[in-house]
Amino acid sequence: MCGKYSKDGKQKCGMNLCCSATGWCGTTNLYCVNGDPKGLTLPCQAGFGSCKVKSGRTCGVGSGSTGGRTIGYYQGSNTRDRLCNHIYPNDIVTTGYTHLYYAFASINPTSFAVTNADPGDIALYTQFTALQKKGIKTWIAVGGFDFSDPERATHRTWSQLCSTPSNRAAFIKSLLDFMPKYGFQGVDLDWEYPVSPDRGGVPEDTQNLVLLIKEMRAAFGSKYGISLTLAPDYWYLRYFDAKSMESSVDFFGFMAYDLHGPWDINQKTIQPVVRGQADIREIGNDTLPLWFDELDASKINFGVALYGRGYTVANPSCNSVGCAFSGPSNPGICTNSAGAMGLAEIQDLIKTKGLTPNYLPDLMMKEITWDDQWIGYDDAETIKQKKAWADNQCFGGTMAWSVDFNSGIGSGLKPTNTTDGTCVGGKTTVINGKTTVVGGTTSTRFDVSTTVIGGKTTVVGGITTSAPSTGPITTVVGGTTTVIGGGGPVTTVINGTTTIIGGTATSSGTPANTGAPTSTNGHCTGPDCHDGKCTADTIDTYRIQESSVQALVALVKTVLMAFARVLIASRSGAWGQIVQMVYARV
């Protein structure tokens, strides 16, 4: 409530919205008129916000106002959390971006010092900031939605951090240590959200955040950049005093996505029906508070989503916007998160299932449906349209969440293309066949072209070292088999079937380079399959990458140990022990 009907009778509308005669904040004539001379409407409460409907200035669809600044968030956690298609900093498709934000760093809830969210982040920081060599500015983003979850130790950290001058100073000092240590050029604060009790907030957060931002600018000068994310809906946005922070930030980021999702099923004010998470009609309404607060549009980045939100519909015969849903959509094959799917996964799904995307002009989005599944998303076409819409609204840039959803095939366990089962691999030595392991364990690490499907391991190219628990060592190098040592349950057949009974088979290797595509278990894989049917980004089978250095070390150690055994067997025990010592140091 606002105005005379608020708790203390003094509450103003956040973001300078109109306070209606009955004490509600809004953006339309229902809230903003100063009174109808005929008495048909009630007057707006002056002094508690605006009493005039406002809209942003218009620059024209072709203005290109957003073109000067394009920001992409990067989730370092994708390298740990996903089942496949890990995107490391070197894998990021950087074309078109002016800034990249590493998401997220954390904050120590006791000392209020910025710290890495996970030990694995540290190694990624320097890889990430090295992208500056491409002319891209690299910043660190702090916080994130999960950071303020009720079950987290950091639930109230933002609020406590901002609450006193000494806590704010500790945070700022830690940033001034953290950023140069890893080479970051600026910081993005992602506090979701101030004041809101369910997010650990208190009423004082609004003013305390303003103090933090101003003190950061005073400490940073022009050396480091500052940006702040703004909530996409007024329920949370009302607690940001953005106008008071405008002169101290380089820019704001408006999250024009996640307006809806499977969580709507728990909302009492709306029905659990399928809605687009980035419906341009809702976005248009949600941006109005920015203009009521008279923010400079050139300092705001318009958010776009490189992922989709999905639902499992209650009735498969009703599978479109407005239909009832019973829960989130099934997890993506790599992201493994119910109700969400990366753009690369969506594009693969379209190909593997033969789906036809449906354009939703009113939403400025696309949808795909099959069985009881519905996914709404943006792709290059609709993102281009939304950028044109943002150009017309004079936004100064765009920001994308997140580039790791749309950087193709990265490193680590990752997808390969598969469409019709006619080819496997590209530019590799091919061992046609399959390895069946009975009564043992198979651990496989390959640089390129290894598929593990339904318990069968098919090795395509590379250096393969197999060592059963009893028996000889078998090394396959680019299609050549060398057996060193005697006795043991290993039968090796090139262009055939290898069966290992008992023991443990461990493989590590790098592919040879002979370019021989073929088929494996009815699937087509490999980026160089050019039969007119294979595609480069289809997800169906997996390849597992490892360093070629590790592969070489594994091979050298295998040969050394075999040589030592030969020397010992020939009664040259002393030499054999020397070789074993060398083995231990490799």
UniProtKB/TrEMBL annotation:
The answer to whether keyword Acetylation applies is no
Q: Does the keyword Lipoprotein apply?
A: no
The GH18 domain extends over: 68-416
UniProt enzyme class: hydrolase
Where is each Chitin-binding type-1 domain found? 1-53
Gene Ontology biological process terms from the UniProt entry: carbohydrate metabolic process
State the source organism's domain of life: Eukaryota
List UniProt keywords, sorted A-Z: Chitin-binding, Disulfide bond
The EC designation for this entry is: 3.2.1.14
InterPro entries, per the entry: Chitin-bd_1 (IPR001002), Chitin-binding_1_CS (IPR018371), Chitinase_II/V-like_cat (IPR011583), Chitinase_insertion_sf (IPR029070), Endochitinase-like_sf (IPR036861), GH (IPR017853), Glyco_hydro18_cat (IPR001223), Glycosyl_Hydrlase_18 (IPR050314)
Gene3D superfamilies assigned to the protein according to its UniProt record, in alphabetical order: 3.10.50.10, Endochitinase-like (3.30.60.10), Glycosidases (3.20.20.80)
Disulfide bonding pattern of the chain: C13-C25, C18-C32
Q: Name one GO molecular function term.
A: chitin binding
The family this protein is said to belong to: Belongs to the glycosyl hydrolase 18 family. Chitinase class V subfamily.
- Recorded protein name is chitinase
| UniProt source species | Pyrenophora teres f. teres (strain 0-1)
